[in-house]
Each structure stands twice: as C-alpha cells, then as structure tokens.
C-alpha cells in the first residue's frame, strides 16, 4: 500500500527559507530561517539529519528535542513545534539569531551598549538559576554558541544537548566529543579522583564566567586568558573573578550572583534592567504603580535600544491601554516608540489605538491627543479623519475647559488639509464663528482668528469670499488687543485672496479705524497693512493689466500649496490658556466697565448723515457687542426673532445676500435715514456683504444691533459718482479705469452662489420689523386701556379712609 504513504516533511506546517544555514551551535544541529506556511510568520528551525553510524549523536539530538519541548521559561529558547522522522529531526522555535552573529553585527553598527549586555547576562543567569534551583538540572553547555537573541534583543538560553540531572539518577554528564565545547569545561573536571568538593552549579558558573569574558573580549583562545579581565567593566570584575576562581566551592549560586550584581552600584543596577523587570511583572502590579511607571518611561526610552522599544515596550503599552485601563499616561511613550516604526507598522499598530482614544471621554487623554497630534497626523488618511476623528474632535469646541477649547482650535491647523468640503467649509466655520463671537476667553478668540488665517488657503473660493473679510473685521473690534492684532495680520496674510473691490471698500475702511486704536501694537500693524494694501491698489492703478494677475488666487480652488505664505505669518498669539491663560489676560468681561452711550442728534432731512466715528473697543457684559434699542420690549422681540438656534441654518446664510441687495455702497452717495435708530456705544461700519460669517451666530454677532434700512433716500442733486470726476487727467483714455467698476452700485439681483434662487431676506426683515412695531403698538394700547380702567375704578369708589375695611 505504498500509494497511501505521505511525506511528513512536505505536510509540516513550517517551511525552510532557501538560504544558507546560519552559524548554529557546534554539534549536530544546523540553524535555518523559516516561516509558517499559513501566516508567513518568521521562525527558526533547527535541523538534524540522521546519519548512519552516528547513533550517539542521534541520541544527544533526541534528548535535546525532548528537553526543549518540556522546559518552559521566559529566558529559555521557546519551543513552537517539532517533527521527528527516521531521516531527520526538525525543531521549530521563535525567530532568533546566534549571539556571536548578533554581537558582530552590532559592533559593525556602532557597538553594543552596556545596558543591553547587563540585561542579556541577567536573563542567562536567571535561566541557569531556574534550571539548577528549580529543576535540579545542569546545563553543561553554557557558552557563546548556546545563547540566542530574539528580535527584541532578549537573550535566550539554548543548547540543551548535554543537559543532565543534578541528582545523579540519570547518570553522569554525557560526553561531548567536540573540542570547541570542551574548552569551556572547568579545571576540576580533569581530576578524576573525586576529592574536589564542589557544588552542583559550580561547573555552569565557571562556563558563565567564560561567556562573560567572550562577550566583552571576543572568542576565548585558551583557559589561561580568563586571568585577564580585559574590557570587562569594573563594576562586574569582582563578581566575574568569583566565577572563574580555582576553588569551585566559592563559586556563587546563580541566584546569589544576580543579587550581588543588582546591589546599588552593581553592573545590573540600572534603569534598563529595572524597566524590563517591571514589564515582566506588569500584570500583577497595582494601578498606581503602573501609572507612575508609564509616566517615567518616556524619559528613559531615548537611551533604550530601538529593537527593545519596538518589540517589547510597544506591545506592553498597547496591552496596558486596551486591557489595563492605563489611560492617557501611555500616550507619550506610545508616540515616542512610534517613531521607530515604519509607515506600514504604524498604520497597523498605532492608528487603531489612536482612533479608539479619540472616542474617549477622558479629558486628560483628549488634551494629550490634541497636544501630540503632529506626531501621528501624517499617518492618518482622509476617510479616517473625516469619519472617525473629526466628529469627536469638534466636541472640544463646546468643552467647558478653556485648555481643551484652545488645543482643539490649534489642532485644526493639522486637520484642515485632510478635511472634506462639508467638515471644513461648513461645520468647522460654524464652530469658529461661535468661538470668535461668544467665547469668554480672549486668547481663544485670538487663536481662532490666527488659525483661520493659517487655514484660509484650504477653504473653497466661495467660503473664503463669504467668511474671511467678515471674520477678520469682527476680530478688529474685539476688546482683547491681541485679537485685534490677529485680525490685522489675518488680512495681511491672506491679501492675495481678496479682490480689489474688497480691498478698497471693505478692508481698508476697517484698517483705517484701527489707526487710532488705544494699543500701539494694533496701530503699528494697522499702518503696515494699510501701506501694503495701498501699494497693491496703486500698482493696479498704474498698470490696469496687472488686475488679472493680482486677483488670480481670488477665485482659485483651495490648494495646500497656497498655505505656505500664511504658515508663519503669526505664531499662536496667546498660549496661556493651558495654564488658564495669564492673570493679566484672564479679565472676565463681567468685571469690565460698562459702555457709555454717546447721544447723536437726528440727521436733518436732506442733509448727508455724518460718518460714524470709531471709538476704542471696550469689553461688554455679554462678551460681544450689543445695541440698545428705544424700547426694551422691542429689543427682546428682535433678539428672539434673530436667535440663530431657532432658525434653519440654511436660511440664515441667505440673509447676507439680501443685505447686499438692499444696502447702498458708500461710494454711490446714497444716504440712509437713521432717525429711528439710537447710536451704539461704539459706532460700527455697516454690515458687510460677507456677513454670512456673522449670520451663523446672529445672537453673538459683532454687528447684531444694526437694523436693516427701512427706506432709502435718492442721492442729492448734483451728486456724482467718484468715477465720474476728472481727477486732473485727460478727458478720454484708451485704457479702462479698473476703479470705475469698483465703485459701481452693487446689483440688487441675488448672486448666483447665493443659498437660494429667491431673495427671502428682504421679506423676512420687513416682516420682523412689522411684527415688532405691531407688538409695540399693541402693548402701548393695552397699557393705556389698563390705566383708563384703573382711573375709572378709583373715581367710582372714591378715596378710601385710613382704617376702613374694604368691602366687595
């Protein structure tokens, strides 16, 4: 039945890699690299080929197979699988490298640190202690060829071929018959009289001394060389001399040798060994001990070997986070170890943990993630950012902790290039608008402006046109001086994103108002920005052909490359929020002086209204600018009608388009009657066409109090447009004047990029004003009716006398 026979080697779940065998231990075994067929995981395979006439070696190999299969210890070579046939023996272990080859490679790469050697020797001595003290076994083959190193740099004890029992029930030590191994035998073995008194561990400890000498000095030429310590560290020399002493009785037990070397100042008394010992027992440590360990681990990782960090520390960190509830303390060492990983490994090991961490409600973890985002943002892809990270990060904008709100704002600078259209141009802008208008912390309002200036190039063209001018204009009215500076710098950093019309009609009027700001830093930046914009306008005026080149970025699509100009225009103006800002900065608006109402005389009919005079911005009790109305009830009705939380968000976006259609441009000479309006404490410019930004936050807008004009007066007779004058030039010119089109009256038709085809804002505004006026009149009539009824009752009953009882 020969056709039923199968080749066991072919069916073995592991296969050899077709490479020359590595330098294995002297003896019958050959060490090969291999892999598991199912998963491709790397392994090491020790192969012994049965040869005729080598029965003794075959028995030694089979004994080693049996010992390795039954002995389980962290410091002994880990057995995975095996195959025994009549022709060969296969022993599969974890992927390892012989110590000799490992040391040679490390020397070529710059040398092996004493920290690594101290922990390696600690592991070998601990394995010997386990064999001698717990198993009563003598290894009988401790040497360089019997030690292997795994991918984490851990030293493993192998070479169990000549192991025997210390109790003498299995016979004496087997004969090696290999000169390369017999040179490590202690001198007392040559005395066959048996009169030498020795301990069961004496021979193995002598061989341990030979191993220590070879690790520091290279291959041992002869036993006499052991008398010269050579390069062995001074802290280890006294203990080494005990190992290679001629008297076997004084050679220490492996456990005592470890204790001696771990004493203060000893060779194995260092942070690296302590870290490894803690990691080995981390599962039984108390939570407080784990917290302290992870907090101190980050400081030591720079001195630890890279392989150790990747293959030993990292798995423990991941396990501690997933199963040990370690929390935020693992983040710092986790990201530090992540630097040693390739991009593929980072995606597989770190990113899933980071995504899971963002969904945590632990504030400490959230703020550390935001602070260290720059270490892992390059490994995040756009779908992951938009669907799994950004929805959790935006919760930080609403957090009651100022430090989290500040870090959330700063993190947007890293997330913006990876956000999609909806998250960047809609969701993020909504949160920025609220922070800039309502946040009580001036530094957060300032940093919101700074961040908006830096990510402006990533916004779509329509969003830039709608948001930037209004946002920076709002910042220039902030009572917090650094916010006003940030608003000016925002204009300067994004100068290439504005049309000449916007520069002349919207930006320069705002900047000119800041030239009388109480803060000199604000005034200085305002003058610089004004000179920059004027120079730009003047260059286009001199050569109108430059207009297209100057405005090439205005309608350009969002481009990451455009962000380079704004990347360094301003650092984070105030970073003290993490420490609750600064005591000088953290002035709550509720303690600020109230605004002073400046009366304004009604404008006579037919006379142009005087231009509003800007006054220094002062904090208000609500954290944003408010306008006092004639009637308190009317103001309450108007506020309730304008509350953005109760309105559909899309309809609010349409309000700005209606404002653009209803307002007269200042250059047309149109005048608006303000007889029904009471002046605000701060005279603010009229609402800009880009007030879509402020429409997101109608309740907290800087320009909330300005009502829409109810009527418009025709221009005065003889009034001419600025472009109709001849400013000293020739009557006719071949070149078209670009400023003639800039000062033209804006069209009353809605723009094509408006939120709807119909202009609902005008109707909605008129309806609100009519309702407010009607409500006021009804209240007034009701008040008069109640007063009349009270007067009638008093007249009918007459005055009541003192002490008289009121009857029905």
From TrEMBL:
Region span, Disordered: 541-562, 591-646, 659-808
Listed GO biological process terms: inflammatory response; intracellular protein localization; neuron development; retrograde vesicle-mediated transport, Golgi to endoplasmic reticulum; spinal cord motor neuron differentiation
InterPro entries linked to this entry: ARM-like, ARM-type_fold, CIK-Related_Protein, Kinase-like_dom_sf, Prot_kinase_dom
GO molecular function: ATP binding; protein kinase activity
Polar residues composition-biased segments: 660-680
Coiled-coil residue spans: none
Keyword Coiled coil annotated: yes
Annotated localization: Cytoplasm, Cytoskeleton, Microtubule organizing center, Centrosome; Endoplasmic reticulum-Golgi intermediate compartment; Golgi apparatus, cis-Golgi network
Biased composition (Pro residues): 601-617
Protein name: N-terminal kinase-like protein
């Amino acid at each position: 039945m020969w056709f039923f026979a199968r080749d066991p080697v072919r069916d073995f779940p592991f296969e050899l890699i077709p490479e020359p065998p590595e330098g294995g231990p002297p003896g019958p075994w050959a060490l090969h690299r291999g892999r598991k067929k199912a998963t491709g995981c790397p392994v090491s395979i020790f192969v012994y080929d049965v040869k005729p006439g080598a029965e003794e070696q075959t028995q030694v190999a089979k004994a080693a197979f049996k010992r390795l299969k039954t002995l389980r210890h962290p410091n002994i070579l880990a057995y995975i699988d095996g195959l025994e046939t009549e022709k060969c023996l296969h022993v599969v272990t974890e992927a390892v490298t012989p110590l000799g080859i490992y040391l040679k490679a490390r020397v070529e790469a710059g040398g092996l640190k004493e920290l690594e050697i101290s922990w390696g020797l600690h592991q070998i001595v601990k394995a010997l202690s386990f064999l001698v003290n717990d198993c009563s076994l003598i290894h009988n083959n401790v040497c360089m060829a019997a030690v292997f190193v795994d991918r984490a740099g851990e030293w493993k004890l192998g070479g169990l071929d000549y192991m025997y029992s210390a109790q003498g029930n299995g016979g004496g030590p087997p004969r090696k018959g290999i000169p390369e191994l017999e040179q490590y035998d202690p001198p007392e073995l040559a005395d066959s009289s048996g009169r030498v008194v020795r301990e069961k561990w004496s021979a193995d400890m002598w061989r341990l001394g030979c191993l220590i000498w070879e690790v520091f000095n290279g291959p041992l030429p002869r036993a006499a060389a052991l008398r010269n310590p050579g390069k062995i560290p001074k802290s280890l020399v006294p203990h080494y001399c005990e190992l290679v002493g001629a008297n076997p009785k004084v050679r220490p037990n492996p456990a005592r040798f470890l204790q001696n070397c771990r004493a203060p100042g000893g060779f194995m008394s260092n942070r690296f060994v302590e870290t490894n010992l803690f990691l080995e027992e981390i599962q039984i440590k108390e939570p407080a001990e784990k917290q302290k360990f992870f907090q101190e681990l980050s400081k030591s990782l720079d001195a630890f070997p890279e392989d150790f960090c990747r293959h030993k520390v990292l798995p423990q960190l991941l396990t501690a986070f997933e199963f040990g509830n370690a929390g935020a303390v693992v983040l710092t060492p986790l990201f530090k170890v992540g630097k040693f990983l390739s991009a593929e490994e980072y995606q597989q090991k770190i990113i899933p943990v980071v995504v899971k961490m963002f969904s945590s409600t632990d504030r400490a973890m959230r703020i550390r993630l935001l602070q260290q985002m720059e270490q892992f943002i390059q490994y995040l892809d756009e779908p992951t950012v938009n669907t799994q990270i950004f929805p959790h990060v935006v919760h930080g904008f609403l957090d009651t902790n100022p430090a989290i709100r500040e870090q959330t704002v700063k993190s947007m600078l890293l997330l913006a290039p990876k956000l999609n259209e909806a998250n960047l141009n809609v969701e993020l802008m909504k949160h920025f608008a609220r922070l800039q208008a309502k946040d009580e912390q001036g530094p957060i309002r300032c940093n919101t402006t700074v961040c908006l200036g830096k990510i402006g190039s990533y916004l779509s063209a329509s969003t830039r046109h709608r948001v930037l001018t209004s946002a920076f204009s709002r910042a220039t009215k902030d009572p917090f001086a650094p916010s006003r500076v940030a608003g000016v710098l925002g204009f300067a950093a994004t100068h290439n994103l504005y049309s000449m019309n916007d520069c002349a009609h919207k930006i320069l009027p705002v900047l000119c108002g800041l030239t009388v700001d109480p803060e000199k830093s604000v005034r200085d930046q305002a003058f610089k920005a004004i000179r920059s914009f004027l120079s730009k306008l003047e260059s286009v005026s001199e050569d109108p052909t430059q207009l297209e080149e100057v405005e090439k970025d205005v309608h350009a699509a969002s481009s990451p490359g455009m962000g380079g100009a704004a990347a360094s225009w301003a650092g984070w103006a105030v970073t003290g929020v993490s420490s609750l800002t600064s005591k000088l900065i953290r002035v709550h608006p509720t303690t600020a002086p109230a605004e002073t109402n400046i009366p304004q005389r009604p404008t006579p009919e037919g006379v142009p209204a005087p231009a509003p005079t800007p006054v220094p911005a002062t904090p208000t009790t609500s954290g944003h600018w408010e306008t006092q109305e004639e009637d308190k009830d009317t103001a309450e009705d108007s506020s309730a009608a304008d509350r953005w939380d109760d309105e559909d968000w899309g309809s609010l976006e349409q309000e700005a388009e209606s404002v653009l259609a209803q307002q007269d441009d200042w250059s047309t000479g149109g005048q608006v009657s303000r007889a029904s309006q009471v002046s605000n404490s701060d005279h603010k410019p009229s609402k800009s066409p880009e007030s879509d930004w402020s429409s997101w936050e109608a309740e907290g807008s800087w320009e909330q109090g300005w009502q829409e004009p109810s009527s418009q007066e025709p221009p005065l007779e003889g009034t001419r447009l600025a472009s109709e004058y001849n400013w000293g030039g020739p009557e006719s010119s071949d070149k078209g004047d670009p400023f003639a089109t800039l000062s033209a009256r804006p069209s009353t038709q809605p723009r094509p990029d408006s939120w709807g085809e119909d202009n609902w804002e005008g109707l909605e505004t008129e309806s609100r004003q009519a309702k407010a006026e009607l409500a006021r009149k009804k209240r007034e009539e009701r008040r008069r009716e109640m007063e009349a009824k009270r007067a009638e009752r008093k007249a009918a009953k007459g005055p009541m006398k003192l002490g008289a009882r009121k009857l029905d």
